[in-house]
Design goal:
The complex is a heterodimer of chains A (about 550) and B (about 280). With about 550 residues, chain A is an alpha/beta fold. Chain A contains 21 helices and 23 strands. Chain A folds into three domains: about 170 residues, 3-Layer(aba) Sandwich (Dimethylsulfoxide Reductase, domain 2); about 190 residues, Rossmann fold; about 110 residues, Barwin-like endoglucanases (Beta Barrel). In chain A, the strands form seven sheets. Chain A has a six-stranded mixed β-sheet. In chain B, the strands form four sheets. Chain B has a five-stranded mixed β-sheet with strand order 2-1-5-3-4, with helices on both faces. A three-stranded antiparallel β-sheet of chain B has the order 10-11-12. A two-stranded antiparallel sheet of chain B has the order 6-9. Chain B is globular, with a radius of gyration of 20 Å. By secondary structure, chain B is an alpha+beta fold. Chain B starts with 8 loop residues before the first strand and ends in a 5-residue tail after the last helix. The chains are: A alpha/beta (about 550), B alpha+beta (about 280).
Chain lengths: ~550, ~280
């Protein structure tokens, strides 16, 4: 947002903020140690609103649980924006000085009265009003979100609807106020920063920008392709068209993690060659023609990762890799050499120095500074720079540091693409549990007493279907059906079912999920499928702890 | 003088040294600043003092009773004695009393201080007397050996207000029967415990122990002197928690996080603490 892809705040700031909107995030389970900082904020007096269709373990710590219907986030955000404007609580000075497009935005949110929002989102109108007033009148306030915002067919619009609220109130670009997407992997931030995305070089330099490209061409000593590449979703479309025939997968498990996964597996099978480089034998690796065993980056090799607060930290080898496993960097360099090319330095520090010479925001992060406990937060342009706790301070500078004012976005409420029907009357949403991680490749290896694999159901829905806690059920969506055990819970509203993606070997949940994807981000609508739930057979023991 | 004097500093005398500490610092902080080591049990750098162990007491001029250095704020002009006969005698007796009722054989620091003060628990109860409870092994992540528990409350604080806010454990019972307990003494898997292991991390006596360590000790294979500790970053989620991997024979045997790292303050979740055995 506003030009750099990173959370605008440091964790410490949430300890000192006044109002927290935790929106589409169950950080208590998915980002537990970040949530410790949130708890300090709450203990220090912050008021927290938790926007989530489920009454999660995070919501249990909130002052107000805002249990909206799945996929109605833009309606709620627009409604809060309208109320802020109508109550005269918008920060007019900030809007005038630092933003553009306010008039069009104000007109676009006009239909979203508290009553209209209440009807769309399934929450009381007073809650919309209260959130608007609490957020707008706070001295400092943050919006925190994760996949509840981004795993939708309109992910980017969802994010922009939250950015609008920060622009309306000036809650961005200063200590304690900001917009904080919490990252799901230990280096998803770093991967993007390093240019491991289809349209950017390191440091968010666009591949289609001739000036940036010339800089990288000079450094790498070769011509570079000016055409942005494909993200994963586009790759699968290319496989379907037959335009993509060879795939080299490094540390990803799309054969389990893609929405409408049966379709995805068929595409992977159709490839001429599939090469997988991974630390464990994933389902994707099992499908591969060649598997390259890799070392565990964070425990067997040297390097860096970058966290949700843009903090670059060192990872170090604690143990030596088993068998034939090799470091990713060695495998990649050898692969290039086999093709008759040189990728540059293999030594992690030398590779890092090359990065620093090309990405200004990393310029001051000398290896020995990173060695010091704690790491450094970008941007850190020179070696005397202490790193940056928050982003976008330029919004408050008299001259905006020469930048364009930040744009408001006009956004339509759409709702999930897959509507409920007589055949598929329940909404299925997927998510994460505390003890597990993504497709369970790593977390499935330790013996968690908390582990549960199954379907969570509202008690009235369960009773209506004749389902008791522990019963075996069949969940059917327009794409397929999967059997699992049911658990009757009090955390779900009527009409909503929930399961995790952690146990694909037991519950192939992505057979069910909706592959409609956001053209702006490539993310599928994992959060909203339409399903039917049927009883399979007699009750088993309650729950299904996984060995 | 080892501290920088700031505008809000207070100056106190520790033994024969004047030290300046920031307003709000404790006598213990002043002792640290003066380079005077102090035994502590219930105090932890990331925890709110609960003042139960009394092993950190010092003599304060003008105060009738000895004062707990970990929780008493330093005030301008205080004169503190850390090695007087009264202080040494009191610390020695605290350590002796604890060792009469508890198995302190794996409490490394506590044992070092007991030796330092010449503590001799046998003069009260020859051989000591513990509650003689079986070790609670209820899952494969950590064990509870309450014969080793000195009831310092650090685990209770870490589980509660000071970090985790889970409140799965508290002190139940009175007198010799007092012990740390889950609700209604149910097993850990049935309790509110979320297995962050932040209690294990703050336990000063090894009453709470990684199951990996417990198993290695059973076969006499726990060799801290052969272990390396490597600081790295957790692989689960994007928070960036720093991990200290304790490695013996090229195997990770336990995992901690540095107290002074401002992302974690020494705390982790179940995945970071226990989820590393795929390596």
């Amino acid at each position: 947002m506003f030009g750099a892809g990173g959370g605008t705040c440091s964790y410490q700031e949430v300890e000192e903020t006044d109002v927290i909107l935790l929106w589409g995030s169950n950080a208590r389970e998915a980002h537990p140690i970040f949530f410790h900082h949130v708890l300090k904020g709450i203990d220090n007096g912050a008021r927290m609103y938790c926007v989530d269709p489920r009454y999660t373990s995070s919501a249990q710590f909130s002052d107000v649980w805002v249990g909206i219907d799945v996929g109605t986030d833009i309606a709620l955000a627009n409604g809060i924006g309208r109320e802020i404007i109508h109550a005269g609580l918008a920060n007019q000075d900030f809007i005038t000085h630092s933003t553009q497009g306010f008039e069009a935005y104000a007109a676009s949110v006009e239909p979203f009265t508290p009553d209209a929002v209440a009807a769309i989102c399934g929450i009381p109108a007073e809650v919309v009003v209260e959130m608007a007033h609490a957020y707008a009148t706070a001295d400092t306030a943050q919006i925190l979100w994760t996949l509840g915002i981004t795993e939708h067919h309109n992910a980017v619009d969802n994010v922009l609807s939250l950015c609008n609220l920060a622009l309306l109130t000036g809650h961005v670009g200063r200590w304690g106020s900001g917009l904080v997407p919490l990252r799901g992997q230990n280096n998803v931030q770093g991967g993007g920063d390093m240019g491991a995305i289809p349209n950017k070089f390191p440091g968010f330099a666009g591949v289609d920008d001739p000036d940036h490209r010339a800089r990288f061409e000079a450094a790498y000593g070769r011509e570079l392709n000016p055409v942005p590449g494909w993200h994963l979703t586009l790759m699968f479309e290319a496989m379907e068209r037959g335009d993509l025939r060879a795939l080299y997968v490094i540390g990803e498990n799309p054969a389990d993690s893609e929405a409408d996964v049966l379709h995805a597996r068929a595409q992977l099978k159709s490839l001429d060659i599939l090469v997988v480089q991974d630390i464990l034998m994933t389902r994707t690796a099992e499908m591969a023609d060649v598997v390259l065993p890799a070392s565990v980056a964070w425990a067997e090799s040297d390097g860096t990762v970058t966290s949700s607060e843009r903090r670059v930290q060192r990872v170090r080898p604690a143990v030596s890799p088993p068998g034939q496993a090799r470091h990713d960097i060695d495998i990649l360099c050898d692969m290039a050499e086999a093709m008759g090319d040189e990728l540059g330095p293999r030594d992690p520090e030398a590779a890092w120095d090359e990065l620093r010479s090309l990405s200004a925001m990393h310029g001051g992060m000398a290896w020995e500074r990173l060695e010091a406990a704690g790491g450094l937060q970008w941007p850190c342009p020179d070696e005397d720079h202490p790193g940056s706790t928050f982003l976008h301070g330029w919004l408050w500078a008299d001259d905006l540091e020469g930048r364009e004012p930040a744009p408001f976005s006009v956004l339509e409420h759409e709702g999930p693409t897959e509507e409920l029907s007589e055949e598929f009357p329940l909404r299925l949403t997927t998510g994460r549990a505390l003890d597990s991680y993504n497709t369970g490749v790593q977390s499935g290896q330790y013996d968690s007493p908390l582990r549960f694999a199954g379907l969570d159901l509202n008690s009235q829905d369960a009773a209506g279907l004749g389902i008791a806690d522990g019963d075996r059920v069949r969940v059917c969506s327009p794409r397929g059906s999967v059997e699992m055990n049911a658990r009757v819970v009090s955390s779900l509203p009527r009409g909503l079912a929930f399961t995790t993606l952690h146990h694909p070997e037991l519950i192939d949940v992505n057979v069910l999920t909706n592959p409609d994807w956001d053209p702006k981000s490539g993310t599928a609508e994992f959060k909203a499928a339409a399903v039917r739930v049927e009883l399979v057979d007699a009750p088993e023991t309650a729950g299904a702890p996984v060995g | 003088m080892s501290s920088v004097i700031t505008e809000t500093a207070v100056t106190i005398r520790v033994d024969d040294q004047e030290v300046a500490v920031p307003d709000g610092a404790t006598i213990l902080d002043a002792c640290d600043a003066a380079g005077v080591e102090t035994p502590t049990i219930c105090y932890g750098p990331t925890l709110t003092p609960v003042n139960v162990c009394r092993v950190c007491v010092v003599e304060l001029d003008g105060s009738r009773a000895l004062v707990p250095s970990c929780s008493r704020p330093a005030e301008e002009g205080m004169v503190v004695h850390t090695d007087s006969e009264r202080v040494r005698h009191s610390r020695k007796m605290v350590l002796e009393f604890l060792a009469t009722g508890v198995d302190v054989s794996q409490a490394v620091e506590l044992s070092q201080w007991a030796e330092h003060y010449g503590a001799d628990p046998d003069r009260y109860v020859p051989g000591g007397q513990t509650m003689d409870e079986p070790v609670r092994v209820q899952d494969n992540l950590y064990i509870r050996d309450y014969d080793k528990c000195v009831l310092c409350y650090r685990c209770v604080e870490a589980c509660g207000d000071d970090a985790q806010h889970t409140y799965a454990i508290s002190v139940a019972g009175r007198g010799f029967g007092a012990r740390i307990s889950t609700e209604f003494d149910v097993t850990l898997p049935d309790s509110a415990c979320v297995y962050c292991g932040n209690c294990v991390a703050v336990c000063p006596t090894n009453a709470l122990q990684f199951k990996t360590e417990f198993d290695l000790r059973q076969t006499d294979d726990w060799r801290p002197e052969d272990q390396t500790v490597t600081q790295t970053v957790c692989s689960y989620c994007g928070v960036g928690c720093n991990l200290e991997l304790h490695v013996q024979d090229n195997q990770i045997v336990k995992c901690t996080s540095p107290d002074d790292h401002d992302v974690t303050s020494g705390n982790l979740c179940i995945k970071g603490r226990f989820g590393w055995n795929y390596v």
